[in-house]
Specification:
Helices cover about 35% and strands about 25% of the residues. The protein contains 16 helices and 18 strands. Helix 8 crosses helix 10 and helix 12 packs parallel to helix 13. It starts with 8 loop residues before the first helix and ends in a 17-residue tail after the last helix.
Length: about 500
């Protein structure tokens, strides 16, 4: 082989074996192989059968997977083969599989991918085992796998080499298969509620739908910059105008912001919009959707996360932002109308305000984030947000506050919902306020979207809308502390 100077002894030996496969007229990188059973199916079908029953009925199976362990004993050996569902033991006896196949098996290394045809039996210790009658080499692994307990454990390295992480870490495999199960659960729930799944544009000429810093991409065909979408909201609302009534999208969003245990610049959300509904409709939708997902993924709607028991079974707490702040600090922002009074309270509490945060509503939101969020462990709907931080939301009875909730679990936001703003005149005023905030230095403020204003002028029905983080819900339901554990290929810093 070319250039072996950086290879260790084991890697050199594995490469030297490639020529030996040719002596057996075997392609070291194989071809298609027909599989009849998975490891889990074999266990489901035969684990409870007695050795005598298996000997009498002689069930045969064909499996394929990666060798995870080999125990050679002269003319008989055992190996463990892992497929996507788990491990199964294989017995290799030269008297059964034949001399040529057994000699080929001697070239096998841990990590190789093989196929086996044989009869199901149980060993003297009672372990379900395939008694191989045919052995097929499929793919050579040229690198030794990391040790099971001391190998690939660093979260950074596991995220960079996810393919290797999935081979050696059972927990990572469990999470990788749980995430699509979660998504299917959400799709099933919304489909049953009469929603239709849609796809909308990822590139947008206008920054809107959320408060966030964008990624910018240049389109050569039009010679102009576009934003990678920070939300799917405005296009989904356009579909309500068009009469689709109940729509949702599960898709990637992109926010050019920090990376930490709960944030990745590229992430996945579900956004759903329902005509003729409101905030209470979204409350009911969120509870039902999350409760079903918990049951489908974990088997229960009471989930243990990082040692804390989270109860998704009983109705989620419903509390206003003002009441939470009053509980924690003794300050009632419903009674404060003057910014200077609010600013002084912020100073007394050690809260520093940025230049563009110049209203009572901004100060109220800072108080909530500083003193309340972290303590919201059980599922809690926090409603009635200040209008300044809710530019796309319908006003409440008190026009300083909006018909909006955020759902918090374990101290983190999981979902965000509105009674949607469908008044084009009010919406234009909100966009203008956002432009003023941008002039004062708010890099996350929305831009004016005149096309969306025009769409509202055609008439959008009263509606409720909700957005929820798929990654964060996956974290909760798979007991993962870091968001990188639930994203197959997360954004990473340079080595």
């Amino acid at each position: 082989m070319d250039n072996t100077q950086n290879l260790n002894d084991q890697e050199i030996v594995r490469r030297e074996k490639l020529e030996k496969y040719k002596a057996f007229k075997v392609d070291p990188y194989g071809k298609a192989f027909k599989v009849t059973h998975s490891a889990s199916q074999i266990k489901e079908l035969f684990a409870k059968k007695s050795p005598n029953s298996l000997e009498k009925n002689k069930p045969y199976v064909t499996v394929a997977g990666r060798i995870k362990a080999i125990r050679r004993m002269g003319k008989a050996s055992f190996m463990n083969v892992q497929d996507k569902t788990g491990n199964i033991q294989v017995y290799m006896g030269i008297d059964v599989v034949g001399k040529k196949a057994y000699e080929l098996f001697k070239l096998a290394d841990i990590g190789d991918i093989v196929g086996v045809y044989g009869r199901i039996m149980k060993t003297r210790s009672g372990e379900l085992t395939i008694r191989a009658e045919k052995y097929t080499h499929l793919t050579k692994c040229l690198h030794p796998l990391p040790e099971k307990f001391h190998g690939l454990t660093d979260v950074e390295e596991r995220s960079r080499r996810r393919y290797l992480d999935l081979i050696v870490n059972d927990e990572s495999r469990k999470v990788a298969f749980a995430r699509p199960k979660l998504i299917r659960s959400i799709q099933s729930y919304l489909d049953e509620q009469g929603f239709v799944e849609v796809e909308t544009a990822v590139l947008s000429p206008i920054l809107g739908g959320a408060n966030a810093r964008p990624f910018v991409a240049h389109m050569n065909a039009l010679d102009r910059d576009f934003y990678l979408r920070i939300a799917t909201e405005l296009n989904l609302k356009r579909l309500l105008v068009g009469g689709m009534e109940r729509v949702y999208e599960i898709g990637r969003l992109f926010r050019n912001e920090g990376m930490d245990a709960s944030h990745n610049p590229e992430f996945t959300t579900i956004e759903a919009y329902q005509a003729y509904s409101d905030l209470q409709g979204m409350r009911k939708l969120a509870e039902g959707m999350i409760r079903k997902a918990a049951k489908d993924v974990t088997g229960s709607d009471i989930v243990v996360y990082q040692g804390k028991t989270l109860d998704f079974h009983k109705p989620f707490r419903w509390v206003s932002m003002a009441d939470l702040i009053l509980e924690k600090t003794g300050v009632d922002f419903r009674k404060i109308y003057d910014f200077e009074e609010a600013r002084k309270l912020a100073e007394e509490k050690g809260i520093k305000l940025e230049k563009h945060k110049n209203t009572v509503g901004h100060v109220m939101n800072e108080f909530f984030e500083e003193f309340c969020e972290a303590d919201l462990i059980q599922p809690t709907f926090v409603y009635s947000y200040p209008i300044e931080v809710s530019p796309l939301t319908k006003k409440g009875k008190d026009p300083r506050f909006t018909e909006r909730f955020e759902l918090f679990v374990n101290g983190r936001e999981l979902a965000n919902a509105y009674t949607e703003l469908n008044d084009p005149f009010d919406q234009k005023e909100r966009f203008l306020a956002q432009l003023k905030a941008k002039e004062l230095g708010d890099e996350e403020a929305n831009e004016m979207d005149n096309d969306f204003i025009e769409a509202l002028e055609y008439g959008m029905p009263p509606a409720g809308g909700i957005g929820m983080g798929i990654d964060r819900l996956t974290m909760l339901l798979t007991d993962q502390e870091n968001i990188r554990e639930v994203i197959l290929f997360p954004m990473m810093k340079d080595r």
